[in-house]
Amino acid sequence: MTQLIPEQSPLAGVLPGRGPRRVTTLTVGGLLAVILLIAALCAPWLAPFDPNIQHIDIRLLPPSSAHWLGTDGFGRDLLSRVIYGARPTLLLVSLILILTIPFGLLIGISAGYLGGWYERVLMRFTDIVLSLPSLVIALALVAILGPGLMNGALALAFTSWPSFARQARAETLALRRSDYLAAARMQGIGGLRLMFGHILPLCLPSAVVRAALSLGGIILSSAGLGFLGMGIQPPTAEWGSMVAEGSKVIFDQWWVAAAPGGAILFASLAFNLIGDGLRDKMDTRNGN
């Protein structure tokens, strides 16, 4: 009697223990972020036209083979302006992260490690800032400091750091009585060396995940400043101000607002997917 042998895959034995690769949200988000970064870095070579040159004779043209996303009210090519608009957006986001993550971690780790009245003062200050409406406070600060890239970054960073501080404090409280820090103290390590040499590296992964998850909201807030005329000033291509220009003719020439709006959606989706993917990757309950 002939014994039936189950058919095996041609790759069986070549890649033992490995199944088919699965596309994750981190992969998709990373791919979208790379596309956005390439567009920002290679804007002079990717943009078909100068983003600031005006041609009144071709103003408000619909999408065509010559102008893939149409033209705006000044005859400027929308595709070129959308590509160049990635530059100030990514620069603003980078400045905000550089300002918020170190400051938030410093406040949170100091409060969790020192305890006592240090913790009460620092966390009450954090709660006060956290209770303020972020966009309203950012608008007020920009109105005082004046519109611009750096002032917009400072205004948004002022209301973005409390979430990092609260998370770092919670993790520091959990680590303060751990065997890991007890062993470090037995070796004579303490003070700032213990805080930033041992506690900080353990708080960084969750801070990176939170930063990725908050990037989408930061992009929307920066676009809101530009929409209200409090961000980067014209004629520099910036997605929020482009949406504001397109809102005046949105019922007749919808593409003027839809092009930068789609870019904002693209960037927010990319960083939200990266944040979700990093959270799943670093979650120990998933077995990673």
From TrEMBL:
One of its GO terms (cellular component) is plasma membrane. Keywords: Cell inner membrane, Cell membrane, Membrane, Transmembrane, Transmembrane helix, Transport. Residues 86-275 form the ABC transmembrane type-1 domain. The keyword Secreted does not apply. It is a multi-pass membrane protein. Its main location: membrane. InterPro entries: BP-dependent_transpt_permease, MetI-like, MetI-like_sf, OppC_N. One of its GO terms (molecular function) is dipeptide transmembrane transporter activity. The chain crosses the membrane at residues 26-47, 90-114, 135-160, 180-200, 212-233, 253-275. It is found in: Cell inner membrane; Cell membrane. It comes from the Bacteria. Belongs to the binding-protein-dependent transport system permease family. This is ABC transporter permease. It comes from Rouxiella aceris. The lineage of its organism: Bacteria, Pseudomonadati, Pseudomonadota, Gammaproteobacteria, Enterobacterales.
